[in-house]
Amino acid sequence: MKIYYVYIVKCSDNSYYTGFTNDLERRINEHNGGVNPASYTHTRRPVKLVFYNEFNDVNQAIQFEKQIKGWNRKKKEAIINDNWELLPELSKNKMKK
C-alpha cells in the first residue's frame, strides 16, 4: 500500500511551507537542495521538517494539504505542537474578525 504525506517545513525566515509527497525524505532533501529555483522554499533554505501526517488515500492527503494551506499561522502551529484541540477555538476567532 502506498503512503502519502502532508508536511509542514519551517523555513529559515520562520515562515511555514505546506506540501504533499509520497517520499518525505526525498522531498525535504529537494527543498534543502534548491532543486527548483522558482519554488517558495528556494530562497528560504534551509528548511526543517516540523510536522507530517500519513495517509493511505491520495485524495484525503490532497484535501488535507489544501485545508492546511488555507490556515493561519496559529492553526498551523497548533498542529505542529500536537494541540489539535485548539483548532475549533482558533477557527472561531478567525470568524469573529
UniProtKB/TrEMBL annotation:
Protein name as annotated: Putative endonuclease
Keyword Nuclease among record annotations: yes
UniProt similarity note: Belongs to the UPF0213 family.
Domain GIY-YIG per the UniProt entry, residue ranges: 2-78
GO molecular function, one term: endonuclease activity
Keyword terms of this UniProt record: Endonuclease, Hydrolase, Nuclease
Keyword Nuclease: yes
Organism of this sequence: Chryseobacterium takakiae
Pfam families to which the protein is assigned, alphabetical: GIY-YIG
Region forming the signal peptide: none
